Amino acid sequence: MARSVSGLAEVFGRKGARPGVGVLLLAAAGSLFVAVATPSAPLRLMALCAGLTLVVLILQLRLVSQWRVWQDRTMAKRLAALTGQDASPCFTTDDLGQITYQNAASRSRFPVPEGGTLTAALQDHFASPASVLYRLQTRATATGAAREDVVTRRGHTRLSVHRLGEAQFLWRLEEFQDRSGTGRGAENLSLPMLTANKAGVVLFTNEAMRRLLGGRPKHLDRVFARPARRSGEEVEVSAADGPVRAILAEVEGLAERREIYLLPVPAEAGPSAVLADFDHLPVPLMTLTADGALRAANRAARDLLKLAPDSFPAFHDLFEGPGRPVADWLADVAAERSPGGSEVLNARGLGPEVFLQVTLRRTVELGRPGVLVVLQDATAMKTLVAQFVQSQKMQAIGQLAGGVAHDFNNLLTAISGHCDLLLLRHDSADGDYADLVQIHQNANRAAALVSQLLAFSRKQTLKPERVDLQDLLSELAHLLNRLVGERVKLRLAHAPDLGRIRADRRKLEQVVMNLVVNARDAMPEGGTIRIETEACSLGEELHRDQAVVPAGDYAVIRVTDTGCGIPTDRLPKIFEPFFTTKKPGEGTGLGLSTAYGMVKQSGGYIFVSSVEGEGTEFELYFPIHEGAEDAPVAAFETRRNMVVRQGEGVVLLVEDEAPVRAFASRALRLRGYTVLEAENAEAALKTLEDPGLEVDVFVTDVVMPGMDGPSWVRRALEDRPDVRVIFVSGYAEEALSETRARIPNSVFLPKPFSLSDLTTTVQEQLVH
User: Within its chain, how far is the Cα of 354 from the centroid?
Assistant: First the structure.
């Protein structure tokens, strides 16, 4: 006991030693020697004072050191008196974990050689002592004390630590023996049983478990073939003689221990084991194994899937996957990686158009995990979703086509405009004249293509008027006969007393020609095309395809051919831009999309029905418009026939596209106008701040970054109400019509416009 106390005191006094005391002693002796030996009185006095000061300092250091040694010995005696007879093992260690003191209980329970560490002493007591001791010592350094319960093979231990000094720690181990059935009582159990900690380390196995496994396992991974283990479910045990199936029963023990028992697997359940009510439930239900095998299906499910009573197909044979194999989805639900949820799947045995909503839930039957399947017919919902998606797609394509057409109109305006400027400086005798004409003609062809895109997106500029369909088709008959050729016969049939419709006459003619040309191309060996008109009065709404036609009076145009027909899978796509079944170079794929856009923009409806190998029929419904005749709209044509002359006046040109602005300004200056340019609305308003500036005409783009054309024009007209306005845009006039109606003396010029169109429009505005 005395040795332990003296050793503890020596450790505590280790920091009291001062290696610098010897140096101070030598310095003091040297100073006193100088005081005695030097003849100089001042130097002697200084050396004497220094020597005496050093002597006093040495004495103080010795006293402090002795006081610390006494204090440490006193603390050591108190600790020895406090813990010496403690029944629990106690240790003191330095900051490196080296044991400096042990009481009698610790020396008996954990004999440690001189200089041993606490980690080595506890190595066989519980798993990973180094990490536990480091964690506790770190917490004790910060807070003064720490405590933790640790699972051991004999039960569990409460390990506590207190910080005694800067680098000294007192440890105490309080052991709790196992009072549960894990001890000797568990050895006599006939059921295989083991105890493990939360990390999966096996702490105890009874005799039945050791016989089953053929030894003592160290970890649960050695016992079970799969990591997923749930109480009450069937598991596979890696036994000495091969895999064994058992039901796992787990009981939560003390100190985060797990007591695991293995129960025998019940006998296989036959069909009679299924509840009688299961077969009579009105909801289609199925139960599956974790690997997708069908266990049972009630009568409603078998009727829905058309399964025979003795048929037990696999899940993946019944349904197509929701973007991935259904077996993967099923495995995720069975393993609880996915909560289940619902998917709309195609039933393989019921045809490609039949869809079922399949809802999965995890179940456990007699210890075996499985999946419960609830079925619901979702064919109508799937069809509705498909129709909605198709409608959204068509709308998105229309928006895209309109945006692309707008940008192309700006490009074509610049191309054709600068081509016009070059043509002014060349005549037909020049070598470049033919090339410029080709550029101009192809620019016009591109403009026509863009116009078709605008037609599909319903953003083309229409000039609606009241149209008599009988007159229109009679006038078209000669041209249509030339289009169809000699092999195809054209038959026209008009209904009597057919009311008039409101549409753009030229665009409607184009729609009919497109439908006739498509019908002709569908009959390479010849056939008959019938164009019929009919007066139709709907007493109630007509629901057809994805449209609803309101009740009312309609004029119907039918274009029918006896050609090859359209396959069912292609019918939903025929109105999409650039969709065509023709060979490259035989068509652009814009004919039907143009017809679709024009009919929709005119307030009509277009439907198609086709039987492959028999022919196709297009039906166009237009509302009948009764009332007074429309006033003729010939202003645009009149402008084109005007004689362009040198002009006078000031034009403020506002255009954000630099190439278009450059062409327009040069074209107007060539005609004698004074042109002020602005790249946006803000710059235009800044120019108009000069009160002395006279402006006759505003020529402005409609859509620009920042403030748009109508907005800045309205602000400018507050101070200049007599200025004429010309709006230009690559979009349709209808997008501006309501706004322009509130702006006096304004006209619309669609892009792409030529040099002549621009100068004629400006001249007309100045004349009026």
Answer: 29
